[in-house]
């Protein structure tokens, strides 16, 4: 009797998953990747740009990351709800030029507070329109981008340069080797991290992006938390505008164009999902570091600014494609 050859049964092939690094029960893959990427960028910069490790450039690097960092945290909060805020660059322009204009008639701290409050007001309006009327965040904040930019030019068509030396303190003062403005940004990230992970409103904001209907059925006021998210974004943008005007010593109604792209890029590099519900404060901060290092390196190389914008757009697309591939595999 001759044996018969039988074909082995076909079984569905499981997708190959990327290896994970785990330490003390926690997945540190993303953190390790960020550290490795930042280290690589620093090494490349140190070897190819003679001025990278100079104290002047490092101080400028710390100052330059403040605006991107503040906007990125506010953007992360909005993205966690499944939204987007395209108006942050215009808020930076308006709050900065409003503060610079008020310095001549008000005490500097009061003028700066008014600038931040203006950002809070714009964020509150954005959030109310989106939550109350269930409008698309993209449309509302795009309209706000144009409107607020116009208001900045209505307030002053020409740059305003305050003469009071005290106006420059927030943007230029240092505490040891670290700029005060950088410490302010780090404090925002630290407090924001605690807010999003350890407080009921923060956890609700994250949950809304995952499934807003489930959150609503749990008895949580979704509209109120969406308004809160956009208000936080507006506050961060207002503070960023005040700090930027203080650092450069002049406020312009045209400043802040495409700043929202930097903020979105930092969040996406940090692994935040534009669909909402997924994102990390620490990873977003890592995204800010990566983005600022790339910008600084390109500046040292003399690369023109419009090519930098091209690179940022390509980075966003590439990271989104990687995120989608990982979701399919998992």
Automatic annotation (TrEMBL):
<keyword id="KW-1133">Transmembrane helix</keyword>
<feature type="transmembrane region" description="Helical">
    <location>
        <begin position="226"/>
        <end position="245"/>
    </location>
</feature>
<protein>
    <submittedName>
        <fullName>Ribose ABC transporter permease</fullName>
    </submittedName>
</protein>
<keyword id="KW-0472">Membrane</keyword>
<feature type="transmembrane region" description="Helical">
    <location>
        <begin position="70"/>
        <end position="94"/>
    </location>
</feature>
<dbReference type="InterPro" id="IPR001851">
    <property type="entry name" value="ABC_transp_permease"/>
</dbReference>
<feature type="transmembrane region" description="Helical">
    <location>
        <begin position="283"/>
        <end position="300"/>
    </location>
</feature>
<keyword id="KW-0812">Transmembrane</keyword>
<feature type="transmembrane region" description="Helical">
    <location>
        <begin position="257"/>
        <end position="276"/>
    </location>
</feature>
<feature type="transmembrane region" description="Helical">
    <location>
        <begin position="28"/>
        <end position="49"/>
    </location>
</feature>
<feature type="transmembrane region" description="Helical">
    <location>
        <begin position="106"/>
        <end position="128"/>
    </location>
</feature>
<dbReference type="GO" id="GO:0005886">
    <property type="term" value="C:plasma membrane"/>
</dbReference>
<feature type="transmembrane region" description="Helical">
    <location>
        <begin position="135"/>
        <end position="155"/>
    </location>
</feature>
<keyword id="KW-1003">Cell membrane</keyword>
<feature type="transmembrane region" description="Helical">
    <location>
        <begin position="306"/>
        <end position="322"/>
    </location>
</feature>
<feature type="transmembrane region" description="Helical">
    <location>
        <begin position="175"/>
        <end position="196"/>
    </location>
</feature>
<dbReference type="GO" id="GO:0022857">
    <property type="term" value="F:transmembrane transporter activity"/>
</dbReference>
<dbReference type="Pfam" id="PF02653">
    <property type="entry name" value="BPD_transp_2"/>
</dbReference>
